[in-house]
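Data availability excerpt. The first of two example chains:
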Amino acid sequence: MTLTIRKEQPDDIDGIYAVEKDAFERNDEADLVNKLRELDLIWLSYVALEDEQIVGHAAYTMVSVTDPEIVKAYPALGPIAVASTHQRQGVGAALMRVGLREARARGHGMMFVLGHPEYYTKFGFEPAKPLGFTSDYIEDDGAHEHFMVAIFDETLRGKVKGHVKYNEVFDGV
């Protein structure tokens, strides 16, 4: 498989919608991406192509971290989707690597994700709650391992913590 990763272009919207819908077997994430794009909330958006056909997509937005008065912005991955015909072939990993590399290059010291710990730990993500981060997507005494952070700048470990707030558009998914 020859895979090309590039930034989203205007002609990609229908293909991205199709991949998101196929990967999640519902419209929610596809509709979320369209809403994020409509509100200009997507920080980065990459597509994976095979033979000029979109087979994967990764969107990155910004989240706020409040501790308690200081608000800082960091990138967050999601959603990320790979067409069912191309899953477990490295497409998602390729999309992840390019986004992580871009976040580091732009000087962001960390990135957040909500997802499967078994997968994202391979890319340097670790549970965020033990590091002092909270989120509307975890309960105080409930499961939290799906809420993760990748810390690129180790000087931030323990210094930056607080409540991580995703845009309210995510609440419907």
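And the second chain:
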Amino acid sequence: MVIREAGLLFRGFTLVKKSYHKSTLGKIDSDLRSGLLTAILNFAESAISKDFVEYFEGKKYLIAFKKNQIIADDSFEPELLISYAIMDREKRVEKYTRKIVQPLLTLVGQEFISKNSGKNLSEISQFKPFKKQLDQIFGSDTMNIDQKFEGLF
């Protein structure tokens, strides 16, 4: 399975996003997509069960989520921070998502929270350096077979 994109959502906006492989044909507004993903996740959890939704599966792609709590400088209460990864859909989705992707998303959330809790989270440009952290966390899971093969030589 190849991770195509990973990032963090807060209040329906993208704080950090790293694209590894193109997954759309046209340009999509990232804030519109972030708001939609947040709304769909919140709706699914309120309609089904709290903490039940770990991923959404389509015909071609899968979007995995991990929820965390972070305190922004303009809030007294912890708020929802969502780590996500978009990947190709293949066999053994359940096993791969639970054993590999979910722990990586947990680590993404923990790293981000440890560095940014209590900050002004509306100034998104300050999070650009965190893209390197995403690269380190996801590592070779972002490479397709050809890229992994090239790396051997």
